[in-house]
Design goal:
single chain; alpha+beta; two-stranded antiparallel sheet; 9 helices; 5 strands; globular
């Protein structure tokens, strides 16, 4: 089995990184993170050669987004982008996930590896797990949602109900 393996990053490392990022732009206490505005207006300041491409669905096919950290490039499928602009939680999370790839994996080496049958990489070494954890933390920060119901997280943070439930389940981890 082939896999991609990144430098290990724990959930707590990701939480600290997101908190530091949000604090640096004065948003550490905001429940609703404006991910599209961040994508369009803040990333170009943080990463001067950042490129964003909104790509027609016919060209992207089944991919909702993709990131090329070595090129400082994020590509988002047009319909996903439009829904994110309109506040759709799942699509906001797609953008947050792609931002996670860009920020967490820029300058790092992600290796293609062959695993022995039955062998698995640890979740904290999986670049997709890392980007999912980053996206969830960016949009529904663990330190802000403690004591909230899944519905409150869904409404106040602008994430899907399933993402809210997942983020709440991860509070103690």
């Amino acid at each position: 089995m082939n896999c991609y393996k990144a430098h290990g990053v724990s959930r707590n490392d990701i939480r600290r990184y997101v908190w530091t990022l949000k604090k640096s732009i004065g948003m550490e206490n905001e429940l609703y993170f404006p991910v599209v505005k961040f994508l369009e207006n803040v990333l170009p300041i943080i990463i001067p050669d950042f490129q964003l491409e909104i790509v027609p669905a016919e060209e992207m096919g089944n991919k909702h987004g993709e990131t090329f950290p070595s090129k400082s490039l994020i590509r988002i499928r047009e319909d996903v982008y439009v829904r994110a602009v309109n506040g759709e939680g799942r699509d906001r999370l797609t953008i947050a996930h792609e931002i996670g790839h860009l920020l967490l994996h820029a300058g790092s080496t992600i290796a293609l590896c062959r695993m022995a049958p039955g062998e698995q990489i640890m979740p904290y070494e999986d670049p997709e797990w890392q980007a999912n954890a980053f996206g969830g933390e960016l949009l529904a920060s663990s330190y802000l949602i403690k004591g909230m119901s899944a519905y409150e997280v869904h409404v106040k943070c602008g994430v899907s109900l399933s993402a809210a439930e997942m983020q709440l389940r991860k509070l103690s981890k």
